[in-house]
Write a structure and sequence with these properties.
about 70 residues, MafI family immunity protein, mainly alpha
Length: about 70
């Protein structure tokens, strides 16, 4: 099994988009990623904001839907 470090923005965005497309809830992303390897949580939050901004979704909308 491969272990990854999620401390690179490009890799982290790819992983987040893949997990979101697979139906993983936003509140569970950190847990799922940490099972694969270490996660820079500040960078993960920044990447999620970028993903939501790209899709014209506010972070508040995501938390309200959960």
């Amino acid at each position: 099994m491969h272990r990854y470090r999620f401390d690179d923005k490009h890799i982290l965005i790819q992983a987040l988009v893949e997990l979101l497309n697979q139906g993983v809830e936003p509140d569970e992303l950190d847990t799922v990623l940490s099972r694969i390897g270490p996660v820079d949580l500040d960078l993960m939050h920044e990447c999620l904001c970028d993903i939501y901004a790209y899709n014209n979704i506010s972070v508040e909308e995501v938390h309200m839907a959960a």
